[in-house]
# Entry
Amino acid sequence: MTRRFLLLMGLGILGLILNHSATFGYQATFDLAWRYRPEVAAACGNLTPPVNCPNYDQVHSATYWGLTVVRRFIAFGVPVFLMVSGYFIAFAAGRKDAKIKLPILRARVVGLIIPYLVWSIIIFAGQALFYNRAYPTAWDYIERLLVGGATGSYYYIPLLIQLYLLSPILVPLAKNRWKALLIGSAILLLFVETLRYFQLFGAGGSVVSSLITLTPLWFFPRRLFWFALGIVFGFHIGDFKPFFQRHKNKLVVATVVFYLLSLVEFEVLLSLSGRPWIDFYSTYTTNIYAGLFMLALLSVDKLKIPFTPQIMDIGAKAFGIYLVHEQVLELVGTLMFRFTPWMLKYQILYQPIMMAFSLGVPLLLMYIVSHSPAKKIYKYAFG
# Structure
């Protein structure tokens, strides 16, 4: 079963790369259309940088549907990361003792913090040198480090550190009162996600706005359920196996159904909002689909996925890939924006290039460091 969780981690990081690449695709299609469409540029008028002239006439085009179908399909990325991390915390705690020892906890947290700080500093330096993006005081940088603010996806690392620090409480609960833990964390997830629905439709006023401010992505309430689920699986996976066996076909069908419903729900929300576009990724159906995807994958016996060993190897390197991939996307996207802007129009070309570089460059860096005299710093750079 541990191999299955490694496979899930590999699929999770691949899904995350696809997700972020599709996000850049949306940006190229909507926000940067003026760069390669003369009629959009003419309508914008002032093109003095920084240009803020989005164009949404490609919503519901073939390009839009291609990006949306992929992005909704791989919505399991971060939930998988957290669930697998929780599973291995239970493994480290020991199924008999159900107690996470301080040296293990310290090693996990330090193993996240050092590479995170290294790459955050590199990113801050790159932003200042190449994008003229600097913050006025040292405290501004410290604030961003505390919440994963060096780049968009880094919120995950302070989040995971919080969950690790909570694990001395979560581990015994997952061992002895796992139903209460899952129900409680699921209710918390539902509450936090519902706040976003209220905000979308302008309901709840300042109360909702304040609660949303108090529950950002980097803060644990919104994602606790997935980590708790992983710890519960770590202690009780044997108890779940009969359920998986009895319902594996239903789980697969339900996964497909909720994937399709996640597409429908977003379109309904977009229509009801009255806006040309909404940045509303984490919906009810998306969360249910992500959970069902994991359950379905764990339930299927003798699962045969092409390139399984390679995907598992990628799963073992997931943290290093996570640290580097978004900066590669930004660099490659910027180069295409400047030198081949026509390519932004053709996502069928743009997406494979972005995905290949965002996976290939981190893996190449990790290989070079691990096979060079600098291999001693590997764990400090990539975890």
In short: The mean pLDDT is 94. The chain has two domains: 1-74+304-383, 81-300. Residues 110 and 161 are 9 Å apart (CA to CA).
